[in-house]
């Protein structure tokens, strides 16, 4: 279970997070929505332990990732998978090497087992045949899928997705969301998806939280958020739904 | 009052950077002595810093030695001491020019690339990806560069010295008429083991400076030099300039210490 408790964060005196609290039960996926620059990605990086809050705690199964250092932090991170906005694939490695990298470095699996797992994973995300291409040789959608394969290859208990469909056309964006849903069905990870894909993301998540001006202004099931009378939520969700409808 | 505040902020900012840089070196040293070492990456970096610098080291070594041959002969002939051309070229190269020019060449060729590579990995979140896999970026990125620089700098310096000495001989011996026996025998008489060791100590310390500064500048590219491509380009420039300045300053202190 992920528990975000009263997290505050400022950059150069500008408060981005002003007391964010959220709970994501085991096996559930939460969509984190909100306007650009409202601190969604910052909050996600706090959950991954890549940023430290000025105040507050982030508990992963009762262990505070913000105050963890060294081995305990590495042990917590080994349970995490993170899909970066730009993929963050190692550009000097092929797609195969990228996906195999965490297995080679963190497990004692034989080369043949690693090879078959990587091929399976790449097949699952639809990248069979592109194994030996480099990140610069493939499209944005393929980079996202390769990054997803790398994040999932060690079967993480927690998955964090930072705008998995940003910059992709609607068809590929939809395919990525579908893929995330399929992986969730199979692996039952606990997840947070930072996204603007409203309402499409509503079909693959259990709960939705909206960040506005540094705090969680609304939280509930996708249906509850859609039916919310809160003007800030309506202004955002309604607008995004209209835009999605027009696509 | 405003000027005092600005001066204070400026000073504190610099102290903070220097402290961060010092801690970075300590971490790099600690992870160097704590196994495991990533041998594949180490070999790759030895190839990059060492093997791929060979051409530039041969070229600069040869021409430095040839220039020394001309200048040394011109100066010594004024005193009728052309016979000492060998020791002059040898000592100048082994004690001073070899380690310094090699270090400056490696900084320009490999150090800048190291800073740019790590800087790009930083801004494209590849370093974050490493950390999120539970892997230590120091062990993967810094230690192989550090060890490779420590291994390669003395070897490249030795090659520079040898090529330079032969360059000096080509000018002094073949062109200006100093006998090969005189050139090499006088060199053997006057160059001592302590002179060679001085060059080795210098090249080792320059290896530490290059890997430390270039890795640091790349690793903190988005924090100290700004974001995006501009941040990486600034970090790369700063890495080369700071490494070069530190090499020359440190060379002075080493020379006065070993004099």
Topology:
The complex is a heterodimer of chains A (247) and B (259).
Chain A lengths: L1 E10 L2 E11 L4 E6 L5 H8 L7 E6 L2 E2 L5 H9 L1 E4 L11 H12 L4 H14 L15 H13 L5 E5 L7 H18 L2 E5 L12 E6 L2 E6 L1 H5 L4 H16 L1
Parallel strand pairs in A: 3-8, 3-9, 6-7, 7-8
Antiparallel strand pairs in A: 1-2, 1-4, 4-5, 9-10
Helix pairs in contact in A: 3-4, 3-5, 4-5, 5-6
Chain B lengths: L1 H32 L5 H11 L4 H25 L6 H39 L2 H7 L4 H39 L4 H11 L2 H27 L1 H4 L3 H31 L1
What is the CATH homology-level superfamily of the largest domain in chain A?
P-loop containing nucleotide triphosphate hydrolases
Total number of helical segments of chain A? 8
Mean pLDDT of chain B: 93
Rg of chain B, alpha carbons: 21 Å
Quaternary state reads heterodimer
Number of helical regions of chain B:
10
Give the tally of structural domains of chain B: 1
Biggest sheet record of chain B: none
What does this structure look like?
The complex is a heterodimer of chains A (247) and B (259). Chain A has two domains: 2-79 and 156-246, 3-Layer(aba) Sandwich (Rossmann fold); 86-155, no CATH class. Helix content of chain A is 38%, strand content 25%. Chain A is built from eight helices and ten strands. Chain A has a six-stranded mixed sheet. The model of chain A has no long low-confidence stretch (mean pLDDT 87). Chain B is mainly α. The longest helix of chain B is centred in the middle third of the chain and has 39 residues, at 85-123. Chain B contains ten helices and no strands. At the A-B interface, helix 2, strand 6 and helix 3 of A face helix 5 of B.
């Amino acid at each position: 279970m992920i528990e975000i408790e009263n997290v505050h964060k400022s950059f150069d005196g500008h408060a981005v997070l002003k007391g964010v609290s959220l709970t994501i039960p085991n096996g559930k996926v939460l969509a984190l929505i909100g306007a650009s620059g409202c601190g969604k990605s910052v909050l996600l990086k706090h959950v991954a332990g890549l940023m430290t809050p000025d105040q507050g705690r982030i508990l992963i199964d009762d262990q505070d990732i913000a105050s963890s250092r060294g081995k305990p932090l590495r042990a917590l991170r080994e349970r995490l998978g993170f899909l970066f906005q730009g993929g963050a694939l190692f550009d000097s490695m092929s797609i195969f090497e990228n996906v195999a990298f965490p297995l080679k470095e963190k497990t004692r699996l034989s080369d043949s087992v690693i090879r078959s797992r990587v091929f399976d994973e790449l097949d699952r995300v639809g990248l069979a045949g592109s194994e030996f291409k480099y990140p610069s040789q493939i499209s944005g959608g393929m980079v996202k899928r390769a990054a997803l394969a790398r994040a999932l290859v060690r079967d993480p208990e927690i998955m964090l997705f930072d705008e998995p469909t940003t910059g992709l056309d609607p068809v590929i964006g939809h395919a990525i969301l579908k893929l995330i849903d399929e992986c969730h069905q199979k692996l039952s990870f606990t997840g947070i998806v930072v996204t603007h894909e409203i309402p499409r993301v509503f079909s693959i998540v259990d709960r939705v939280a909206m960040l506005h001006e540094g705090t969680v202004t609304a939280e509930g099931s996708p249906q509850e958020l859609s039916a919310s009378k809160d003007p800030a939520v309506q202004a955002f969700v309604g607008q995004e739904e209209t835009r999605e409808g027009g696509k | 009052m405003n000027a005092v505040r600005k001066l204070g902020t400026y000073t504190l900012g610099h102290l903070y950077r220097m402290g961060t840089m010092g801690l970075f070196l300590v971490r790099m040293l600690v992870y160097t002595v704590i196994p495991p070492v990533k041998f594949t990456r180490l070999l790759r970096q030895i190839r990059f810093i060492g093997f791929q610098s060979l051409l530039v080291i041969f070229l600069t070594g040869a021409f430095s030695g040839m220039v020394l041959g001309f200048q040394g002969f011109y100066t010594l002939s004024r005193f009728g001491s052309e016979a000492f051309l060998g020791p002059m070229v040898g000592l100048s190269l082994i004690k001073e020019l070899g380690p310094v020019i090699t270090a400056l060449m490696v900084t320009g060729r490999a150090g800048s690339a190291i800073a740019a590579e790590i800087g790009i990995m930083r801004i494209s979140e590849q370093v974050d990806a490493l950390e999120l896999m539970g892997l230590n970026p120091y062990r993967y990125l810094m230690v192989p560069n550090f060890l490779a620089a420590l291994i390669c700098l003395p070897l490249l310096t030795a090659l520079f010295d040898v090529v330079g000495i032969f360059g000096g001989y080509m000018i002094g011996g073949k062109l200006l008429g100093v006998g090969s026996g005189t050139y090499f025998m006088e060199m053997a008489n006057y160059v001592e083991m302590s002179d060679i060791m001085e060059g080795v100590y210098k090249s080792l310390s320059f290896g530490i400076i290059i890997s430390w500064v270039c890795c640091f500048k790349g690793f903190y590219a988005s924090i100290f030099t700004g974001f995006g491509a501009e941040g990486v380009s600034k970090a790369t420039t700063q890495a080369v300039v700071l490494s070069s300045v530190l090499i020359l300053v440190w060379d002075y202190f080493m020379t006065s210490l070993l004099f």
